[in-house]
Give the backbone structure.
Amino acid sequence: MDFLFRDEYGRQFGEEDIYNTLKEVGAGDCEALFLHSDVMFGNTAKGFSRKEYLSRLYSVFEDLNIKYLIVPVFTYSFCNREDYNVRTSRTSMGAFNEFIRKKEGRYRTLDPLLSLSVPDCLKGVFSAVGDHSLGEGSGLDLLHHMDGVKFLFFGARLGNCFTYVHYVEKMRDVPYRFDLPFRGAIIDETGQRFERVQTIHTACGGVKPAEYYYFEDYLEEKGLLKKQLLGDKYVSCITEKDAYREISHMLDKNIHYFLEVPFQEKDLTHQYTMGLQGGRITHC
């Protein structure tokens, strides 16, 4: 079979098309690639199992010869009053990220809210993640201090899944978020269970975070976000340094930039009011 999926117009796409798209947005030109994914680019070719489809997608990333492929495998376990099991807790970040997490030769961080899956060769760096999921020593903070990092949005959109914005908000100490601790249990890769308090920087009670497609458009117009259509969805890529600088710049220009509406003093209550989807918290 020479194609993986077909878009709404009947056009067929295979591994070579995906590879070329990734190269066009610059996804292969980095030391570390941080992957956000939503991999249903159209109708999957008949005869493929889900596992085979994901395996063939993964083979394209192997062909890119990226030194470090890093994927978010967030669970928000403590938010949902669940134990966080490094081996068995499923991520809410999509089937492809879960598929990569389960592969041999990968290490998952001990963060019970915003865990990352990294190659085993980075275990020495990422085993030291701290007890604040968005603060200094967090997985995203460690990423920020690496060289040659890019963010890839593979079918996913920067406008509604870029958790990194909240890391920069924490670094800039924005007034509309506050530190909220959660308590729970972690079961590590050896099966050892231990208690932990994990903190996250979450929106104040009256604050309404935005879906910032306008920021995505701004980055594309400025030439910082490389973007290509693949099937029914987009693939886009930006360097971590450009992302950090531009997020900081927008916050300096307008502290309300990443909010649906400007906050008022009465909104800045340290009350946890983030929504539930199907009874589970999917973002804090």
Confidence is low (pLDDT under 50) at residues 274-280.
